[in-house]
Structure formats: structure tokens, C-alpha cells
Amino acid sequence: MKTTARCGRAVLGRGALLALAALALAACSETMGSLTPSVNHVAEVDADSAAAPGNIASLTDVIQRNPNDSTAYNTRGIAYAKSGRYQNAIDDFTKAVQIDPKFGAAYTNRALAYRQIEKDGLALADFNAAIAANPNDAGAYLGRGNLERAHSHFPEAMSDLDTAIRLNPEGAQAYHARGLIYQRQGDHAQAITDFSNAIDRDPFAAAPYQARGESLLATGKYDAAVEDFNATLNVDSNNADAWASLGLAYERLGNKAKAIESYERATMVSPNNPMALAGLKRLGSA
Asked: What is the pTM for the complete model shown?
């Protein structure tokens, strides 16, 4: 079933449509957004006002009025997932694909929810089902690529992320995820290019700045690394790893005072941060 047909379907009343519109991700978008990603992880579920209990209650009312509407179940499932209620979300996505076995986005969403509860085998099966239902679903390739990356299946992950980028060249997450693979493989030049592409597309996400900073640090570009770690901390000032990496960049630049200050900030957030503790010991401030 095509999204255009689903979105154009006039089965919901005005009140039901308003309830759906209250979601940050409306029914026509169909798939979940992204968790705030860390340097080593790119996931696909985030928390926002769509998960408010009132919105879930409104969506429940939509479903009661339209019990055979797969879109309504998918949309409520998104709201459940964004509130961390993953089993409720899985139940709704399951109902959505029971009603519409070709609802690719619901398979993708259920796969993402399975990943959150560490059921990766079921997640992989659902990503495969999503791609079979809709071979042009960039989100399914991104999700499967991240799953493969998490299991160190890098060639398969790279192939899926390449496809996700081809299908959705303006999406930041696939560039970030592919950059992490290049970084893991020691290809920092390619990693920096991908992280830069991710930043161009989403300049307010902290993780690509931090990841790019790590590759800049690894290639001796310490001033540029300082800029990226500071950009990370402008978004997330409680990121202990970013503070520690900033300390290392300052240490490599010979700025002992700034290095110690940054390492100490890291230990304020995470007292056992190994990079920060090692740095303070090297600089005689432990």
C-alpha cells in the first residue's frame, strides 16, 4: 500500500484527524524519528510531546472509532515507543501489519521497537519484511544497516547505508552511521567527510560533531577537534566523553591549563571516566 493512498484516505472524522495532527510525526510520515545518538550508536526512536498521555488517549479514541485502520495503530505505536512503552508499541505495530500485511513502515517501526528491547533477531526479520514491502524505504535500510553495524557486519551495513543515502540524500543519520564504520576501519578522511555531511543536514545534533572531533583528533588536527568538541558540548554540556576528548585535544596542543579544566569537567559528570583520569594523571593533577 502506497503512502499517498494511505494519506488520502478519508476514513477519520475531524476530531480523529486533529488527534493525529497532534503528533510530531504524523500518519503520512509513518516511521519513527531518532534517539539522540551517541558516538557509537545511531538509533531511531526519540521522545517528544507526541508521547504525552493525552495524545495516546486521543489516539486510542481514534482506534476505537476506526478499529480496522492500520494507520491509527501505527501512529499510536509511534507514540508508545516515544514514551518508552515498547511492548505496547510492538502490539500496535503488530496489529497494523495484521490489518495491512504490506504496511512497510509498521514493520520498520516494530523492528526499531524490538531493537530497544534487544530482540535483534526479530528486528532483522522485520527490517527484511519492510524492505520486501517497500524497496524504497530509506528508513528500513538505515535501521537494518545500524543493526548490522552493531554486530560488526560492516560490508552488509555499508551496503544498506549506501542505499539509505541514495534513497534519502538529505537524511543525516545514514551519513553519521556510515562515518562510524569508516572511523572504526581507520579511514578517518572518509569518516570526516560523512560526519560533515551529517552536520550539514542536521547542525543541531551533537553526535556527528563529537564523532568528527574524534577523527580530527586521530589525524592530528587538534584545533579543529577543539571546535567540534566545543560544538558537542554546546548541545550537551553533560557529555563526559566530549569533555575528556576536549581535554586530550588541549593536551596535544600543549595547553595544560585547558586540558586539566576539561578533564576535571569530565570527572564531574562521570567520576570514573578513564580518558579523563588518565589525562589528569599524565598532567600531575590526579
From this structure: 0.81
